[in-house]
Amino acid sequence: MNQRYLERIKSTILVFLVLLSFVLTGYLWYSAPSYEENRDDDYIQPPYIGSEKDNDISTYDLTQPQQIIAHRTGQHLLIHSNEKVFQELYNMVRGVSLVDFTVVQPTPEDWNRYYNQSQASELQFPNGCTVGQLDTFFQRTTLRDESTLQALSQINRLGFFTDSKSNRVWMWFFSDDAQQVVQARVDNLTPTQLQTALNQVMPNRNPLVIPVPTNEKAPWDPMNKNIPFSHMLYLPTAPLRVNSFAYDFRTIDINTMKQWLFKDPYVTPIQLNNDELLYMYNSQDQNIYSDQIINYRKKQGMMTYTNSPTPTEKPRMLIREELNLINQFMQLHRGWTGSYVLDQLTSDKQVNTYLFRMLLRGFPVYWENEQPGNQPNTIELSVTQNSVSKYSRSLILLTGSTPEQKPNLLPAHDQLLDQLKKKKVSLASISSIYPALMGAQRNEQHILLQPVWVVKYTDGKIETISAEKEER
């Protein structure tokens, strides 16, 4: 065979091999699985924990006051958090611009003007709050920059009032524990605007209350001009009529929580005993390692998630930044299963722990034998190394409710003081008294919520006074 034929055969074979490689490549490409599609097909998002409505909130919603007291030229009225006027007054306070901060020592004349002659809204924080917490909801003023406020470890009340003498609106920051008042001028609001908002608060809609100083010395009385002011209780002139409620409930599946909190949905539990399961997972995210654990107690229906990230050199977050981090963490799985507000902040050198309490029908919710994060009424989260390091919550979720047939009456001012006197309780030992709902599991289907007075003492202890059934 001559050389020319050999070259043709080689060329033909080469072309054939090239064509065959294209065919095989195309076949492999066509028949190979799509890894991107497989990831999408394999991933099934777990169901959300709570509703979109409960989780469509801003960080400042978590730091709102528990209740507001309206002072209307000598009349004092209670405003619950579920009322429209409450939100209007709260948003008004959020938008104020504050200037001219100064420490003041109000005279009896000043106290009388505040309580009995002005138009005022008083935001109540029964457990006290820090300047860092208040910075979360003020839009136009950075309070942590004010040296006059830095000396106050706790602020119990914000008084927002008109002054006829100066024709201005002022704000008082009350530290009842330190017996100090810091005053600031509101420079973007007129007395008429505040009065218009307060005109919505009416005695036929809002309970009338009486201011009761815990040292039993009214600061507006000239006889008490040399006596430091005390905590102020606001007790109703007539019994408060409040329903009890029976709530259905269901339990959130722990596997759903695991799928949200761990990147690996296939982590299997270690059974510590008949009631307790432990899930453990080690994650890596952008060269940051963390050991994650979920401890689940089936009988109690509660879980505690812990996350121990690798220490970093990042500066510690501000309170408002940590609260924003917590809100984003909770919104990811819609973990706010109701309306919650910050009830208490506990700090140490490295960790801030935030206790959030449920608000239901305008009332804070407490529980029999309450332990933080163990019942449906509280959620506890900690922040360490700029990440959520602890998350404790009940997996019991309140659903539909039915009111009890007989409304309850919470004791009025005189009855309440008589009961405290019979118990030999000194008013000086009390920091606040406010209405709330007390929860307890009635049976396997229902949780009962009943109205109570919560009595909070200066040492942090809490006692409740029950309501009575209304006679008809």
TrEMBL record:
Q: Where are the transmembrane segments?
A: 12-30
Q: Give a Pfam family name.
A: YycH
Q: Which domain of life is it from?
A: Bacteria
Which Gene3D superfamilies does its entry note? YycH protein, domain 2
| Alphabetized UniProt keyword annotations | Membrane, Transmembrane, Transmembrane helix
Keyword flag Nucleotide-binding: no
Is-annotated flag, keyword Disulfide bond?
A: no
Identification of the protein by name: Two-component signal transduction system YycFG, regulatory protein YycH
Q: State the organism of origin.
A: Seinonella peptonophila
